[in-house]
Every structure is written in C-alpha cells, then in structure tokens.
Amino acid sequence: MLTITTILFSLALARATPLTPPTVQLDSATITGVDGGTVSKFLGIPYATPPLGSLRFRQPQPLGPFTQPLSATQYGPSCPQQKLTSTDSLSPDLAAILASSPIKDTGNPESEDCLTLNVIKPSTATPDDRLPVVIWIYGGSAFEAGDTQSYDEMGTRIVERSIELGTPIIYVSMNYRSSAFGLLAGEDIDISALGDAGLVDQRIVMRWVQNYIENFGGSNKAVTLWGESGGAMSVTLHLLAHHGDTGDMFHAAFLQSGGPIPAGPISHGQSTFDYLASGTNCSSAADILECMRQVPYDTFKALVDSTPNILSYQSFNQPWIPRVDGLFIGNQPLKLVNSSIIANVPIVTGNMDDEGTIFSLFNTNITTDADFQNYITSNWAPGATADDLAPLFTYYPSDAASGSPFDTGANNTLTPQFKRMAAFQGDVMFQAPRRFMLEQFSGRQNMWSYLSKKGKTTPTVGAYHGYDMVDHTLEDYLIHFVVNHDPNNGTGPAWPQYTTASPQLYTFSDGKNMLCVTTLLLSLALARAATITPPTITIDHATVTGLADGNVAKYLGLPYASPPVGSLRFRQPQPIGPYRTAMAATTYGPSCPQQKLTGVTDIDANMQGIIENSGLHSVTNTVDENCLTLNVIRPAATTDGETLPVVVAFFGGGFNVGDTASHDDFATRIVERSIELGSPVVFVTVNHRVGAYGLMAGREAYLEGLGNVGFIDGRIALRWLQYHLPSFGGDKNKITLYGHSSGASSAAIQMFAHHGDVGNAFHAVFLQSGGPIPVGDTSHGQTCFHIRYVYCLLLTLSMLSYTSQSMAGAWLPRADGLFLTDAPMKMVNDGVMAKVPTVIGNVDDEGTIFALSSRNISTEDDFRNYVKTYWLPGATDDELAPLWDYYTSEDGSPFDTGNETALSTHFKRMAAFQGDFMYHGPRRFVLEKLSGKVNMWSYCTSHVSIEDVSFLFCYPQYHGSDFANNLLDDYLVRFIVNHDPNNGTGVAWPPYTVDSPQLYTFPEDADSAPILTNDTFRADAIAYLSNLTLTYPL
C-alpha cells in the first residue's frame, strides 16, 4: 500500500521533471528560451554583429536573418563598464544607499561582444495576441555602465504584474555600448560619422522589435520606450533624433529622472580623445582610430577606467555623454526642444525631489562660497560671464534650509555647501530640462509629469536619484501607460495632463499621492531666460513680439496669406491686409498637409538616418491647412534702418513633405555663422502647400487656373517681404533665393515664373541639388485627379515606395499657361529664365537614395520596362535603345566604387540613371544654355563624412550629404552678401562657361582644399538623356 511519504515523493519527482522549454520561430531558426512560470524568457539574443576588432567604435551592423537554432537561456555579457570611483570615503550607510541605486558596478561578466537583447513575455502569449510592448533602456552611471541582467527581477516583475492587472505586456531590454566604446567623441569621430554609436545600438533594437516582436505575441504598433536616469536621457534623445521622426518604431515614452540633457557638439570630447590616443601611443598614427582598434581590450579598458566618471569630482561634466553628431542628434538637445522638434507621442516625465544629492557626495571638498562659485564657473559654465552667473548664486544660496534634501531645514548638512551643490546639480541636470520640455510641448501632445518625495527621511540624501526604482512606486502607472498611453487607471486621484496654464505634478510622498503645482528652483539656463526681454518690431499697425535665442532674434509663424481652407482649398493664395493687432510670433506655424512617405526597410540604422537627414522624412510639427506662414531670423543686434542682405529659403521634401520648423537649426546656424564672418544676413523661411493641396493638376485644375498654387504661395510670400523687410532690417533689393533638393527646384521655378519676369522679387539664386526639373503640362497630372485620387495621395506615389515611380511622382510642378507658361526645360532651351547670379550644383551620387525604392528591379527587362513605363513613356524603342548602352549594369552610382556598393544587380545602374535624369542633366543643361549671359557658378561634391562605407548601401556622396554636413554654409553666406561665392582667399571659384565648364569640386578628403574639374563626365549619356527629357517631360 502507498504511504503518504511515497505519494509526496512521487509528486516531488513529477514536479522535478523538466518542463518543455518555450520556443519561438525567427526567420528559419528556432529560438529556445527559459520557462519562468507565468512568463517565458528569451535571453541573450544577438541583434548586431559583435563590435570587435575593426568594428570597435563603429556604428552597429545589423545581423542577417536567423538561420541556425539558438539557445536563448542566459543573459549575454555586459558591454564594457567604466570603473566607478570607490565609495570607501563614504559612511557605511551612504555606501549601502549607493549600492542600492542604479549607480553601481554591475559585477556581471563583460565583453566587447555584448550586443544582445532579451524578451520577457507572458508564457501564454501567441503571435495573434499583439500585446503592447515596453522597451527598457537602462541608465546606471549616466552612459558609463549598466546592463540588462541587473534588471532581470524588475523585467520579470513588470510582466507578472501586468498579467495580474489583466493587461499583459511584453518587456524588451538590450545591452548597448557606453563610455569610450559607444560614446567616443572628437574630431576624428566627427569626420568619420561614428558619433553616438551606443544610441544607434538602441535604435537598431527598435528596428529589430519592429521586425520580430509579433513572433513573441507583441504588437509593433504599440511600443513604449522606458528609461531611468541615463536611460531616460537616451529615450529623450530618441524623441529628438532625426528631427523627431520616430520611423514608427515607438509610440510613447516614459521617462524617470532624465530628459533633454544640455549636451554640446562632438568636438567637446576632443581632450579625452587625445588622452586616449596618447595613452595608446596612437597620437602620431596615420589613422588614429584604426590604431586604437588594434589596442588589446584590457589595455584600452584600463585607460578608459582612468578617465573621470559620474562619481568623480567633475560629477556630470564627464567625457562619456551623447554629443551633437549632425546625423543622429542634429543640434543641442535643449535647442531642439526650444525649436519645437520632438516626436509627437504621449510622454510621462518626472523626477525624485532630491535628484542631486547622490552626485554631490564626491564634491565634499567644496566648503566655501568661493569654492562653490569657482566650481560652477570652471566645471559647469566656463563660457559664462560674472554678470551671467551672479543671479545663479542668489537663486542657490548657501543657506542649508534652501538646499537639497529640500524641506529638511538644517538637517543633512554634510558640508557647508553640500545642500547647495545638491540643489544646483539636481536642477541643472534633471528638474530644469524636464520643466523646459514640458513648457515647450505640453498642450501640443499628451504629457504627464510627476514628482516623488518618497524616501525623504533617508539620512543625508533624502528622496534621492533612483529611489523610485528601489520602491517600485511607478510600476502600475507604467503598465497602464504602456497599455493605454495614459497613466491613469480609473481609481485613486486622477492624474491630469500637464499644461502651462495648469502645471500640475502627480506628487508621491511617504504618505499618499497628491496633486500640487510645484515651484522648483531653476537652472542657469532658465534663470537667464527669465531676464531676457523678448524682441519686438512694428509691422503696419501692430506690435509683433519675437523670440530671443542667443545672438539671434526669431519672428515665427507670421501669416502672409489668407488660410486656404474651405472654399479656398486648391485655390491661389489670397494676400492678407495690414497687421492691425498685436501678435506673439514665438512659435512656428503648423506645417501644411503632408503626404505619408513609404519607408525603405531592410537597411541598417545608419542608412536610415542618412535618408532621414537627406530631407526625405515626415515632419513632426502640427499639420493644418491653415499653414501659410513665414519666419524671419535676424541678428539680435540689428537696429532700425539697417539693410542687411536677405536669403529666402524653400524647404525640400520631394514636393510631398517638408516645413519650416524642421529647418530652424539650419536657418539659425546660417545667421549665427554670418555674424561670425562679420557679414550678417537675415534668413526667411516660407511654409507653402505641397502634395495635392498645392500641386493639383489635370484638366479641371487647368480650366480654373489653379495650377502650381504651392509655388504661387512662395511668390506671395516674396511680395509680402517687399513690403515688410525694412521692419526687420532687411534689404528688399538684395534678396537671394535658396533651396535644397525640391526646395532648389522650387527656387528655380520662381526663375521661370511669369516668363522670367522677376519684378524685384529676388536678385540671386543658390540651388543645392535641384534645378529646372523635366516636367510637362498640367494634363500629366490627370490620372490622380480622377478615380485614383486617394490612391495616389496616400499609397502609391510616395518618393520612397517600393512600387512607386520614385521621383516621377504625382505632385510635381506643371506648365499651367499662367504662372509657369511652358515646360521648364523648354523654357531653358528658349532662354526664358530670370537672368540673375546663380550657384547650382550637385553631389556626385544624387540618385542612390532614390534607387533604394527600386531594389526589386533585378533583370534587364525590369530596368527597361521601369524606365519606359515611369520615366519616358512616350519614347520609342529606337529612341530608348542608346540609353541601355549609356547606363549599363556594369557601371553606375555610387561612381568610382567598383562592385563594393552594388546593393542589387541594377541598383547602381538605376541610381546613375535617376541621378542624371533629375539632377546632373538639368543642371548641365541650364549652365550650357545660360552661362555667359549671366554669372553662374557650379560645383560638385565628393565630400565623404563617413569613415567606413562598406556597410552602407550607398556611398556617402548621397543626395543631401552636402546639406547634412554644412559643407556649403560659408559659400552660401558670401553669395547672399556679395552675389559671388568667393571670399578672396583659397582656391578661386570661377564662373562656369561653355568654353571653360569648371566645377568647384569638393574632394573626398574633408581636409583637402576644393579643386577645379571639368564638367565633362558622362557627356554623351547626359546630353542624350537631356534631349529625351526635352521631348518627353514627366
């Protein structure tokens, strides 16, 4: 007979029998995970090629499809960790507190081969469930250390709790590179476009989630980014990256103790780069980076460990922080926020009350007022004057009762300046950036904010940085937010959205949660901003108040025409009457309606970033038909009566997308640079209609005289400027039109308008990668006017669609008989064009980015059918036959690269054809017809700003590279001022003539001076192609 003991023993054996481990299918591979009861874990999944050897410091290389079985049962090694300052100088209690916070050594195995991710999901989730997803980005020691294994318990707890709440979610975490391995900075990094590699690691994971999370039961359309400390700062940078374009990779953000950090240019890391180069004996190497890649890991890691860290005397002023690299981060984060550039997604952001206390534990030798003031001046604000800093020392007094931990009187006074230092550091890095972001964006998008005073009784450090991670205060709110994009759960005190009119914080205390309007001390940036008097001017009868931004003044969102809404949709713009009421011109107006662009998939993060920086990205600003506004940016010191040269810029975006807010950085940079050069200018940007709203074509549009209304918007803006430029100190008789890509084509269209009659609207033109495009009359747009209108508008005619016509899109300028009297190329051929000084040029490989949308063209027949169907449908087979010989599959663009960049069989051929058809051909055609009749200069750039291009699908002389790397800024300023791009020094840039068709050529080596080359490349091919386009326009 069985005894109770036997039964129990049998049950124990049965339970000990191994469970079937969970599996998931990725591509053709089976991935085996770990059974965790109610959750399943898939750990250590590689998402990029190991960044070893020659890949050290480089941008991450995405992996190909999964083809082999993978055991995903343990976490991958941590990425190399910065060794933190010892806590031996602290009391045992403080050392224990620090050890419980995220700021600590992980103690886990480390390796450069560390780019792995982890997925924790409900064990019952299936691919059909489409559960919300949260991507966790760890902080740790502010970009110096941290890993995913340390957060295994938290990730498991979050998923288990979501199951308990009846709203299951999926948790994803990743290891990413930090310190010198992921955030090395300096000139060599800048030139090689290797900045912020650790952040690009994170972006690669987001793309991986888009591709694979459905296999785990997750939805790639419901992804929330979540981070704490440096992780929250990382999330904020993703909100700001690529002009706020998320690429649909995430849809909400939850920020704990981190926001838009006050980071500067990548050059600010040069001193540490030089230190590492010297310590590795690489300073004199021909290629310093390559030399440092050869240094053994242990040797290099020891040298990195000797640099300052977050627990050093320098505190946050450390070498390893994200920097402005011009590709991933386009400008200083706070400037991007100030320019209203951020992803338009729901956001929760908040802080602990005493964020700065932990970071001030290692500044205890600062004991006097003089010590404090010297530390702020040297470590935080070396460029500020004594007058700038004087209010700061008043806002942050040495009185202990005013410092942090706040509301603790004279308690916790570790040293005479400790609480003062803690208050300042907490505000400058956490509270001020959070509030600044909320004040800029709340009201535009759903935002909630909190303040946690929990742990306030903790000796010395109070409600310290990281305490919310220790007590799990926010986890239920996080789950509600991941599921609903709203932290409320319908019970307890309602958490209202934050607005400037009602800046309420959901405040946690050791008692209960409450709402309050909390006034926090301000950082230096905000304190200074409070004392700045906004600039004003008078327009007609109205006082217009602008925005002060350093040494420039901005007047934004100025209406120049009646809103084209209701009965005015599609119609020509209606000029407005005089300004009569006071106006606040402090924010950009809404963008005009944008066409949805179809993304290009299956490319690496760096290439995706290049596409986004080329100008071919959706805007993140508010979109509205009431959009006809312009903006004026001028030197702040401009006085009444001045007549500064003026540039009027038209944005690019393929006539489908684009706005002025996205170009705030560029416009500001040009004005600031003009001031540095001693030749200040005024910069104007114009919002105008695009897509169907501005370029409707067809018989009906022709009969009603409604063609090209988007370009007529621009003409009306130029007319407005003739009346009002003197109010801004601008010279209405010295206006240069500027544009890049389709913006350059827009400027060129103004040269053809009204049969070339300028009417004093402008006096010179600077065209980057755009010109007189080969288009026909309005009848060429008939198809999209009729039954396929919505189809054309929303689906098939995006410039980056796999199945579309690429640049042969629906919404193009067309000859309408009124504004544009004939096809532009025919007008060039007839000499009908404004005769004004002109600069026009291209990058070498204009067509590569656009050819990415045609990678399914893999055979000779595919190529010929594509050209005949979309580009030259009227041409005969005999007329097309020479093209097949001129543009072969053996040669193409990127030019002069052999087979290294052949993405597909016909990719380079397609890139060469499209680049010549839309860019090089029209440029050379207009130069050959008009040079000699007017001063014209031309250029070509082979400038390379990316060190290693073997992993790119496009050589970096791509469409937009000259715009992205500021290559032509100084030449543009000189041309605006003098209508001549020369400055009297360096290589002279001669005017272009038929007898001497010289191009000012920017060589591959960024440090080399420009050279003169003859514009004779592909002479026969381009000449034949241009003649075909003259006969058969788009």
TrEMBL record:
Span of the signal peptide: 1-16
GO molecular function: carboxylic ester hydrolase activity
Listed InterPro entries: AB_hydrolase_fold, AChE-related_enzymes, CarbesteraseB, Carboxylesterase_B_AS, Carboxylesterase_B_CS
Pfam family, one: COesterase
Record's keyword terms, sorted: Hydrolase, Signal
Domain Carboxylesterase type B residue range list: 22-511, 535-1004
Keyword Hydrolase carried by entry: yes
Alphabetical list of SUPFAM superfamilies matching this protein: alpha/beta-Hydrolases
Family: Belongs to the type-B carboxylesterase/lipase family.
Name assigned to this protein: Carboxylesterase type B domain-containing protein
